Amino acid sequence: MRVKITLEYDGSKFYGYQIQKETTNTVAYSLQNALNILNISNTPIASGRTDKGVHALGQVLHLDLPVYWGDLKRLKFSLNKILFPTINIKKIQKVHKNFHARYDAKSRVYRYLISTKEPSVFLMPYITFLRDVDMKKIKNSIKLFEGRHDFDYFKKCGSDTKNFTREIYKADFYRYKDLYIFYFEANGFLRSQIRMMVSFLLQISDGKLSKNELKLQLEKRDIFSTSLAPPNGLYLTKVKYGA
Prior knowledge:
This protein is α+β, with helices and mostly antiparallel strands.
């Protein structure tokens, strides 16, 4: 039986989602270890990976279960007993045998959280604290990212993909209570692409870069910045699938 698993995790406790040779402290390793304890040897396939320090509120996996694991409520309870509090399984549901968490995804939604309040040691792993943000400058520039673009100049070196074209359906910047929030929804993102886009926009906010320079880099005519915003403010919020 194939199932779709929706989960959340505290990225500050892990070196990213993907299993790595150098460390066992990854989300994928922790999940596989928990599954092995429950005599499930199949490997879950994720909608995508997240970097070290990046959080998820709605990561999605698919997994083929052995026949003796038909009680999905019990499976969810058993997994959370092992994984909590750094990982929480929110939902396990039966899906079609051909469902694929990565290839069937229609879009992925990320949010990046910023606060200009006095920094808190308890919130530092989950919010990026800045002295000031020029909301007008960012809102005036962020819409340039919308549409279909070759994001070759907005990716971290070492990306394992050869196709750098992605379509961003919505890019927005807004305030909610004490937080400033970047919102990006696209059919996919390259390695560290969002953190690079956020960094560029924050440099526009600070007056270090301009909207025109963003346009030039987006058109691959010049490179003005490849710096990354800190990972702690970034959240994989939701993965959307068709009806």
